[in-house]
Design goal:
Bound molecules: coenzyme A
Active site: 315, 361, 416
CATH topology of the largest domain: Citrate Synthase, domain 1
Keywords: Transferase
Order of helices and strands: HEEHHEEHHHHHHHHHHHHHHHHHH
InterPro entries: Citrate_synth-like_lrg_a-sub (IPR016142), Citrate_synth-like_sm_a-sub (IPR016143), Citrate_synthase (IPR002020), Citrate_synthase_AS (IPR019810), Citrate_synthase_euk (IPR010109), Citrate_synthase_sf (IPR036969)
Number of helices: 21
Structural class: mainly alpha
CATH class of the largest domain: Mainly Alpha
Family: Belongs to the citrate synthase family.
Number of domains: 2
Radius of gyration: 23 Å
GO molecular function: citrate synthase activity; identical protein binding
Number of strands: 4
């Protein structure tokens, strides 16, 4: 039986020549000599792996020297309330791809969302950045050329085939099992394909860990559109998906596999995958992937763990919650989007002890630029869509209500406040699937860090915990010495 998502790789092999030195192909692994896997492109430009191999030794040396020179500098102070408050604000994770400023929002390798929209290569038929180009940027700090981005698209799509046991597993899952649980199960089952796990079992040297982590990460990225689409088609449609197009970019393949041919929807996929990818390292999905990866679990197991965190309603699942909340609001107000009516609905939600989904953020203290990028997309493509008007009406009122309510540190909308509306417009209406799309996107942000972690030899995570009793003793000791 032919595996789902199997690409006709003829187009790919024309572009990628002399594939892998040492006999490890894009499919099954034979790790006889543990070779350095290098893909060369016939266009003469360097591949992502070659560029990373050139860039990271000096970065690793820079980190080594930095630690040596300044390792004893105190970079912060920890308050007891932070230990009880989800470790908010404690600087304790190294994350190279992006940094989040509370007021300015995210910067990917120093670039704002508006800048990546301008600078990154785009598909010939689109206006939005290619997420595979963002992956390149996050991993190396460099913007790829159009040719390099295109070659990376082809490389990823050549890795899209799913093993039969994963297809059977997905086909056998109950339709009412949440799509995120299905997503996590499928990614975990891909552990059977892990080149890192096999190389590790054969005693590969630490300096080569990154090489197999890189291969697993690209294999996983290539398979995610097929997994996501298989789940979507199994749960909500006829269970059938088309074939991967080896000559199309990642966003187009994802859109088409899901069953959407609309060009604007495809461009939305590119934007969606780019803006949801990375939001520095402390959020639940990024931190979990990083934490589990620090135990040298494979990219499959590390990413699946991160996805279990993304499935939580306070994190990625908020995009589903937003939509459910908006639908109830629409039903209740019956076309009356006046300030007073929406304000009353917001207060009802708050008074019933619930949060306003899509508002607030652990770090941000202004409107999330990811929200703004999606709002601008809606303004460009469907300014008169009723649900978009409702989202805009809530945006006018909610920050004021939340400020008056007085609890939330950030009364402004976050990314999840807008994403569902865009998908609704193009007919992807099944809200319980939305977090899976977020998950596909998150892979573009967390996998580069996993590769970097292996390249620089990041330590296993092991922060210190105390019981409340021990914290009391600690506090008593500190207050006694300071008084
Ligand atoms: C994102 C979120 C989890 C951040 O949590 P946080 O860092 O603890 O946020 P804050 O420090 O501002 O929380 C302080 C208080 O305000 C409340 N609060 C925060 N956001 C709120 C919101 N959108 N509506 C109502 N209350 C909110 C918190 O529940 C908390 O109340 P408590 O003291 O009774 O526990 C939180 O804002 C939230 O639950 N938002 C709604 C869900 C959402 O949109 N998640 C997606 C995030 S990208």
């Amino acid at each position: 039986m032919k595996a789902v998502g199997s690409a006709s790789t003829r187009g790919v092999s024309r572009r990628i020549k002399g594939v892998l030195a040492g006999g490890v192909g894009g499919g099954r692994v034979g790790l006889g000599r543990l070779p350095l896997l290098v893909r060369e492109y016939s266009n003469g430009e360097k591949s992502l792996k070659e560029r990373f191999a050139e860039v990271f030794p000096s970065k690793a040396e820079e980190i080594k020297q930095f630690k040596k020179q300044h390792g004893k500098v105190a970079i912060g102070q920890v308050l007891l309330e932070q230990a009880y408050g989800g470790m908010r604000g404690i600087p304790g994770i190294v994350w190279e791809g992006s940094v989040l400023d509370p007021h300015e929002g995210i910067r990917f390798r120093g670039r704002t969302i508006a800048e990546i929209q301008q600078e990154l290569p785009k598909a010939a038929d689109g206006q939005e950045p290619l997420p595979e180009a963002l992956f390149w940027l996050l991993l190396t700090g460099e913007v790829p050329t159009e040719t390099q981005a295109k070659a990376l698209s082809a490389d990823l799509m050549s890795r899209s085939e799913l093993p039969e046991h994963v297809i059977r597993l997905l086909d056998g899952l109950p339709k009412d099992l949440h799509p995120m649980a299905q997503f996590s199960i499928a990614v975990t089952a891909l552990e059977s394909e892990s080149k890192f796990a096999k190389a590790y079992a054969q005693g590969v040297a630490k300096k080569d860990y990154w090489n197999y982590t890189f291969e697993d990460s690209l294999d996983l990225l290539g398979k995610l559109p097929v997994i996501a689409s298989k789940i979507y088609r199994n749960v909500f449609k006829d269970g059938k998906i088309g074939a991967v197009d080896p000559n199309a970019d990642y966003g187009k393949n994802l859109g088409h596999l899901l069953g959407f041919q609309n060009k604007e929807f495809v461009d939305l996929m590119r934007l969606y995958l780019s803006v949801h990818s990375d939001h520095e390292g402390g959020n639940v999905s990024a931190h979990t992937t990083h934490l589990v990866g620090s135990a040298l679990s494979s990219p499959y197991l590390s990413f699946a763990a991160g996805m279990n965190g993304l499935a939580g309603p306070l994190h990625g699942r908020a995009n589903q919650e937003v939509l459910e909340w908006l639908f109830k609001l629409r039903e209740e107000v019956k076309g009356d989007y006046s300030k007073e009516t929406i304000e009353a609905y917001l207060w009802n939600t708050l008074k019933s002890g619930r949060v306003i989904p899509g508002y607030g953020h652990a770090v941000l203290r202004k409107t999330d630029p990811r929200y703004t990028a999606q709002r601008e997309f809606a303004l460009r493509h469907f300014p008169d869509y009723d649900l978009f008007k409702l989202v805009s009406a809530v945006y006018e009122v909610a920050p004021g209500v939340l400020q008056q309510h007085g609890k939330t540190k950030n009364p402004w909308p976050n990314v999840d406040s807008h994403s569902g509306v865009l998908l609704q417009y193009y007919g992807l209406t099944e809200g319980s699937f939305y977090t899976v799309l977020f998950g596909v996107s998150r892979a573009f942000g967390v996998l580069p860090q996993l590769i970097i972690d292996r390249a620089v030899g990041t330590a296993i995570e092991r922060p210190k915990s105390f019981s409340t009793e021990k914290f009391k003793e600690l506090v008593a000791k500190i207050t006694a010495t300071s008084s």
